[in-house]
Task: inverse folding
């Protein structure tokens, strides 16, 4: 490591060396293909590396408003060599086994991929131009793969920065609350199969991306060693980590980032959560400076000051802004000054079905009298309840399904920042029941306050949670009062009319609900507003069934909010 300095690396006028299709040998003799971008210098340089199925040769043409200029070396969800290499870094992109130009059997997001990543890191670290210090940085798939290889602690891996990266493949991506998240992962798998078999790779790697991933995902519908091998193992992750999430990633990546910060065994770790699209913050100057300060510290030994700052950096949403919000520094997650506040469900009327209707209130005191409300679990459309049709997963109710509850207009600005819990007493006429929870910010005009989604779209919700009632069993060791942890290792089937308690993990969020606004929660049998593209498979146990929620009396159903008092 170099002597400490208070300066981050500055760009120098260095020629870019580009090495295409570099062969990297794996321990089993397979060769993976990589592109290496490095500065033309006699100094040994550290490496920023990626290994994914997204094809190293596939050009990304960014939107015009990106804070980095488009160039011939841009690649989806990865760093820009034209920015990093002049600052004294090499950038390495590896086609994962069975993807792009790399031969072999495709197995995305797997333990085998982690072994390959380990081998690629150690091989690159031994190049004569490399300082033997490797860091990992990238978005989404490029982030989740970091958690997996960090389990193995490659000696040359000095730091990671998983930027919006799921960590628990079962809970974060495949099975939300035990409900199969078919919408995104099904489309992802089909699209990348098409990218390989109907795109240019067909010409040089005609058997690329040949895997049985979707069958395996559905075959392994309970948590098991299959999933643990493909996810983060927090007690094994020792490398310095900067976990970066996005409040808009409440259906895929955000949980991995907060869980990683809370649970990884790393002695040196930081957490940042921002807003905006899936790619603009990563390529913004502000975001790149965080990245550079982190890797300058751990890969170059520069004292950039980043480790002297509070470990948590949060962008606090105040509702409806098309621009970024201000960051606030914190010392822990969840915040120590959190006031865990129960908002109880009060049932006032029968289901209305109106798009903006509500069936009851969220109140600070539990109703003394018990009540109940029943709604259809079926997704009835113009074809009726067609649970055997492929349309069953895409064509739902013609109106609002389930029931909704809302606070009275707030008498002051109320900040909610942290993880949430929805505690419900429920029953069904079927053997199982799907619970979809959507938290919404309703303005004085009665309309949703939208936030910017992962792809720039308006999203009319704050965060979400899910649970399949038969998966309600908790892991008592890992569960926390503010974050239930479900075992997902057996099914506790419902008996018709049997009332059970379900503690639903609602993914973390940050929102200042302004004075005059209402906090609204929808409890539904299907995906609600703001779900797409992260939609779910609605099983046949829903067909013709009726679900009931109980509130008040001995069944005090409630939403637990992490309310943050103003600093004085």
Result:
């Amino acid at each position: 490591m170099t002597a400490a300095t208070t300066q981050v690396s500055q760009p120098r006028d260095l020629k870019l060396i580009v090495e295409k299709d570099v062969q990297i040998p794996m321990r089993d003799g397979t060769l993976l293909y990589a592109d290496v971008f490095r500065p033309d210098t006699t100094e040994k340089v550290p490496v920023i590396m990626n290994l994914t199925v997204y094809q190293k040769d596939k050009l990304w043409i960014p939107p015009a408003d990106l804070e980095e200029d488009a160039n011939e070396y841009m690649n989806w969800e990865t760093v820009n060599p034209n920015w990093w290499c002049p600052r004294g870094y090499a950038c390495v992109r590896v086609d994962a086994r069975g993807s792009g130009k790399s031969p072999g059997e495709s197995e995305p997001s797997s333990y085998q991929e982690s072994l390959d990543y380990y081998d690629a890191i150690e091989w690159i670290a031994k190049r004569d131009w490399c300082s033997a210090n490797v860091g990992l940085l990238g978005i989404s798939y490029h982030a989740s793969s970091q958690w997996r290889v960090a389990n193995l602690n490659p000696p040359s891996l000095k730091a990671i920065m998983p930027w919006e990266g799921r960590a628990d493949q079962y809970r974060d991506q495949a099975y939300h609350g035990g409900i199969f998240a078919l919408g995104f992962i099904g489309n992802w798998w089909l699209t990348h199969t098409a990218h390989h078999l109907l795109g240019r790779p067909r010409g040089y790697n005609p058997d690329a991306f040949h895997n049985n991933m979707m069958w395996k995902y559905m075959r392994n519908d309970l948590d098991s060693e299959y999933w643990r091998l493909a996810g983060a193992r927090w007690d094994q992750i020792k490398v310095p980590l900067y976990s970066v999430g996005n409040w808009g990633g409440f259906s895929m990546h955000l949980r991995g980032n907060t869980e990683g910060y809370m649970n990884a065994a790393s002695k040196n770790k930081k957490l940042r959560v921002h807003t905006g699209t899936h790619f603009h913050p990563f390529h913004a100057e502000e975001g790149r400076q965080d990245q550079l300060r982190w890797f300058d510290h751990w890969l170059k030994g520069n004292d950039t000051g980043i480790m002297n700052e509070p470990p948590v950096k949060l962008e606090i949403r105040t509702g409806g802004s098309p621009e970024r919000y201000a960051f606030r520094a914190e010392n822990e997650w969840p915040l120590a000054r959190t006031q865990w506040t129960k908002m109880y469900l009060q049932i006032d009327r029968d289901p209305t079905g109106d798009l903006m209707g509500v069936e009851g209130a969220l109140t600070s005191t539990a109703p003394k009298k018990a009540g109940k409300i029943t709604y259809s679990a079926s997704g009835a459309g113009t074809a009726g309840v067609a649970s055997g049709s492929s349309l069953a997963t895409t064509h739902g109710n013609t109106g609002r399904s389930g029931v909704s509850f809302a606070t009275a207009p707030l008498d002051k600005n109320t900040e909610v920042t942290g993880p949430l819990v929805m505690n419900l007493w429920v029953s069904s006429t079927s053997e199982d029941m799907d619970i979809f929870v959507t938290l919404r910010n309703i303005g004085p005009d009665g309309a949703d306050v939208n936030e910017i989604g992962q792809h720039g779209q308006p999203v009319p919700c704050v965060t979400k949670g899910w649970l399949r009632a038969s998966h309600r069993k908790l892991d008592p060791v890992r569960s926390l009062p503010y974050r239930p942890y479900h075992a997902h290792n057996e099914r506790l089937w419902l008996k018709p009319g049997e009332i059970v308690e379900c503690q639903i993990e609602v993914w973390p969020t940050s929102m200042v609900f302004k004075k005059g606004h209402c906090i609204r929660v929808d409890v539904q049998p299907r995906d609600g507003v703001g779900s797409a593209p992260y939609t779910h498979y609605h099983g046949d146990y829903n067909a013709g069934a009726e679900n009931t929620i109980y509130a008040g009396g001995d069944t005090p159903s409630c939403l637990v909010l992490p309310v943050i008092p103003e600093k004085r």
